[in-house]
Design brief:
This protein is of the alpha/beta class and 250 residues long. The chain has one domain: 3-Layer(aba) Sandwich (Stationary-phase Survival Protein Sure Homolog, Chain: A). The chain contains 7 helices and 11 strands. The strands form 2 sheets. The chain has a 9-stranded mixed sheet. The chain has a two-stranded antiparallel ribbon with strand order 9-10. A hairpin with an 8-residue loop joins strand 3 and strand 4 (64-68). The chain is globular.
């Protein structure tokens, strides 16, 4: 199995090295990661600027690694179409900070995994609480092994894995979850003649089936995130209620 690893925290992050080390148990590992941190960059791609590639000979024994002066989605594209790597699965992370609820819209970690799905390669995203890797170190190998061996990966969904809050020293188990709510309370502070974005996440009640609830209650969450964002139930409602024809707007 050929495994590509990407992230948004950059080639220098601890999480990407942890993921690469565990992934070596399951196949040949290639790393193409941003040269500098690209957190919260979303699913941006580089189309008007050049990108420089750096070979990372000292990344890890047995792992071929490069850093690209680009975004996470760029890294996946470049691995497949610039380096011409034949990849069976893409792993993104392990991100320094959870990616759940509405976070996934902004997440470069999810963008790297989502780009893989768009290009026809199954993908898993991994995230943990800020600077907290104990449960990841304890559980990552088991989760990775199960996901790679149980024939559950496809090219329509990213499996989004979040490890629990740093309030817990061990996980309470694994839950298959849905995306919850995690709105951010924005503040803007002026410093001289510029503004800095500040704030924190709002505390809202989430159902017990959500990724946010799992994170806050000590569970590892696995959430299937689809690339096709069409709301098929609402599409049917629109068709039922809006009766104009394609030719006539009256």
């Amino acid at each position: 199995m050929n495994i590509l690893i990407v992230n948004d925290d950059s080639i220098n992050s601890y999480g990407i090295r942890l993921l690469a080390d565990r992934a070596k148990h399951y196949g040949d590992v290639y790393v193409v990661a941003p040269h500098t941190e690209q957190s919260a960059i979303g699913h941006g791609i580089t189309i008007h600027d050049s990108m420089k590639l750096h070979v990372q000979n000292d990344f890890m024994e047995g792992v071929k690694a490069w850093s690209l002066e680009g975004k996470p989605a760029d890294c996946v594209k470049f691995a497949l179409y610039g380096l011409h790597l034949k990849i069976d699965v893409v792993l993104s992370g392990v991100n320094n900070g959870p990616n759940m609820g509405t976070d996934i819209i902004y997440s470069g970690t999810l963008a790297g995994a989502s780009e893989a799905i768009i290009l026809g390669v199954p993908a898993i995203a991994f995230s943990t609480d800020f600077s907290y890797y104990k449960i990841v170190e304890d559980e990552l190998d088991c989760i990775l092994g199960k996901l790679l061996h149980l024939d559950v990966l496809n090219t329509e969904n990213v499996i989004n894995v979040n490890f629990p809050s740093s309030e817990f020293t061990e996980s309470q188990g694994i839950r298959i979850t849905e995306q919850g709510l995690r709105p951010f309370l924005h503040e803007f502070e002026m410093d001289g003649d510029v503004y800095w974005a500040r704030g924190t996440w709002d505390k809202v009640e989430n159902g017990t089936n959500t990724d946010v609830y799992a994170f806050e209650n000590g569970y590892i969450s696995l959430t299937p995130i689809q690339i096709n964002r069409t709301n098929f139930e609402y599409m049917k409602e629109l068709r039922d209620k809006i009766n104009w024809s394609e030719e006539n707007c009256s």
